[in-house]
Amino acid sequence: MAYEVRPAPYGDRLVRSAPAERQPYAGKWTARTRGGAVAAYDSRRGTLRWRYTRVGHRPVAVVPARVQAIALWDDGLVTATDGRSVRWHRALPDAAEWLPDQGGTGVLRPLGRGILAVVTPRRVTAYRTADGDLRWVLPARQGCAFRPDRALRRGPALLVAQPCPRAAWTGQVVAVDDLGRIAPDRKPLSNDLPGRGPDTRT
């Protein structure tokens, strides 16, 4: 028997397989898209832990982020849920122009240290996974477009293809990490949650 957790204004419907007092949240789970929903399964037993749907929409991609599952939906909404509630929602600009053909492959890119990159043709946008706070935005060069499906991880860096007509190859690949574009002598802001002190990395 399923138990509804929380209706929400974005058509959210989050349902778990047991009432809150009997739900073993401490155990690990894995989430994947299944039947128009994001479904989480107990990693040890394989049983359904919770199921998250949005009325009239379907998830096109889902990635893990610590104790959350972050999903991209067919209307360009990005959501994060931990199985108890939907923690945050973020809408991608101009999604109707590119998402139907692109299909969502490679759009969601965890960068580590609690940061998620969302790679779209016009920009790379980074959010803090804990609360969905916008951390930085990197627009594509004029006349160019990012290719989410052709991004690659190299250690802590994400290399994003940016095909440009009549441009040198060095301008057609952009490297980013959780602090933004990787460049000499950069001085990025901290990505820490408020009250946790500054980021001390150099």
Features:
202 residues, mainly beta, Thrombin, subunit H, 4-stranded antiparallel sheet, 17 strands, 4% helix, globular
Question: How does this structure look, described?
Answer:
With 202 residues, this protein is mainly β. The protein folds into two domains: 91 residues, Thrombin, subunit H (Beta Barrel), CATH 2.40.10.480; 86 residues, Thrombin, subunit H (Beta Barrel), CATH 2.40.10.480. The protein has one helix and 17 strands. Strands 1-2-5-4-3 form a five-stranded antiparallel beta sheet, with no helix packed on it. It starts with a strand and ends in a 21-residue tail after the last strand. 31% of the residues are buried.
Q: What's the overall geometry? A: globular
Query: How many independent structural domains?
Result: 2
Radius of gyration: 18 Å
Which architecture of the largest domain would the CATH scheme give at its second level?
A: Beta Barrel
Q: What is the spatial order of strands in the main beta sheet?
A: 1-2-5-4-3
User: In CATH's first tier, which class of the largest domain applies?
Assistant: Mainly Beta
Question: Hey, roughly how much beta strand do the residues contain?
Answer: over 45%
Q: For the terminal residues, how far apart are their CA atoms?
A: 51 Å
Structural class: mainly beta
Characterize the main sheet. Answer: 5 strands, antiparallel
Kindly state the number of beta strands.
17
Rounded mean pLDDT score: 86
What's the total helix number? 1
